[in-house]
Amino acid sequence: MNHLLASRAVYRRVGRDYREFIFFAFMALSLFLKFYFLEGEVSGLVTRQPLSIAASAAFCVLAVALLSLVWRRARLPLSLAFDLLLSLLVLTDVLHIRYYSDLFSFHNIGLSAQVGDVSESVFALFSAKDIFYFADIPLLYLYYRIFRRISVHPFFRAVTSRRLACAALLLVFSSSAIACRVHSYNKKIRGVLRSMWDRPAVCNNVGAVTYRLADSWNAARDRANKRTLSESEVNEAKEWYDAQRASFRVPKGVFGAAVGKNLIVIQVESLQQFVIGLKFLGREVTPNLNEFARSVSFAGSAYNQTSSGNSSDAEFLANAAFYPASAGVAYTRFAGNSYEALPKFLRERGYRAIAMHGDKAGFWNRGHMYPALGFERFVSKKDYIVDEVIGMGLSDKSFFTQSLAMLKNEKQPFYAFLVTLSSHYPFNWEALAKRADFSIDGYRGTVVGNYLSAIHYLDREFGEFVKGLKASGLYDGSVVAVYGDHTAIPRWDSPALSRLLGVDFSKDHNWRYTQRVPLMINVPGVKKLPVSANNSFGVINLPRTLALLLGFDFRYGLGADMFDGAQRPVIFRNGSFMAGDVFVAPQSRSAVNVRSGESTDYGEYEGMGEAVKKTLAVSDRILEYDLMPRMLEGGKESAR
Fold first, then answer.
1. From CA 271, how far away is CA 486, in angstroms rounded?
2. pLDDT tens-digit series, residues 459-483
3. What is the pTM of this model?
4. In this structure, are residues 263 and 415 in contact, taking their beta carbons and an 8 Å threshold?
């Protein structure tokens, strides 16, 4: 006993007490390993960059260093609570990966109500090994209970100036490591940490910790920048919205031209207007699309209205008929909103609504956004037999073949929304070049050349899909619409495109006119649709147009129909717009005819410019404050 007291006295004198250090060192290591194993769940082929590992380790060390500054009597419960919260967050990510093939985002926290609908599926996702994400918590507690009495010193020591100095140094080091990783990745792919179009890919490149910090920052910034709307501002938006809806008219002659028919909409990746009808080295680039264009009820073009959301923005325009988000991406920011989109609208009128895409459900947050838009079923990569992969997912050949087989067995009438993938930028997938069988001599190794090859492949598989629709009888029983989601060729490669087309793209009006995508609609038994000749169109005009053909008056979106004779602008996210063939830029007070290059008096369009500004402002307000329920106070239209 005397010996023990003597040794404790020496222990007290010398001050060599490492218990707290061991506690927090073990906790930091445990936190790091949780994120490390999460990265393995995200991708079996995870690439761990040294800077990403350093950023993850720095965060874990900083976290425990800050916890060590807490009042010592609260240090244990707060440390264990923090560990538990992070463990739950990691487990949430793991379950999201297993169910959605995606990571959890704080932007989607409002979607927690969906968990009740899929609770059985969620519980089935748990694995026995998941217990290890929490194993360190009881071990840390046991360590504290066992070792707290072996010394006369308290287990958790008082905060000293030395400890504060160490924490400050760790804060500087950790912040620098994380900032360096964020900066290097954003420099490599500009804006990716803001838009988060592929969260697993971001996590794979920057690490789970940096991904989580970026997602938290995005959600916090959006919430902080969101001011409270006054009742008068809500009423002002509703008045404008009501007036917009009242301005829509039901056209004669086409309303109900396809009553009872199915609706099949195909969004084609990177399909740009200039390839339609184009010949290269004597061969048609798109022979099947050319044939389709010659035989359908309407074949024209639409101006690209997408923003940073690219394909997801096009889907949003084509289904919700709202404009892309003013910042970030609507699909990742507003999946928790209430919508009166075309899929929901048609479901309320007896249609089945199915979305089909050969990529992961989590890409662009589709797994959450599609149900919000009203799709009752989403057939994603995990639901297909992945027998052939090109680029980012299932090949268009396999996608069209398997989707057709599913549609043959689908209960009618249905709305099927198909999104292709193989012709995705940068168009140089090795498997794609082999299957395209299209000579690009003179443009080999260029973006333009690879694009021609990719679109030729898409065209061939699209042709087979149309043949299958006809053979099954679905073609005659469906309205079929096809459009390109966004443009394909970047401005920096315009010299190659200029050489191909013989157009001088140093002139801005020529480049602007090329920023169009094909838009085609076939209605069984209708040779030609009476589309307005005075207007240019955007994909936002598609939902109301298609609903009218089916015999429904869809008035919930901001896009007019294509039969509307009133001059309406095609609005772009930056506030510029098309008025017929005139491109109007209010920022520079310019108006230029994109066909002729002739300047026009901006004053003629100034009033329209103010209306465009108001339209975008109301669209943003409805999205950012989830105002659609307020916009529809007073009742919805009957299900006619």
1. 7
2. 999 999 999 999 999 999 999 999 9
3. 0.77
4. yes
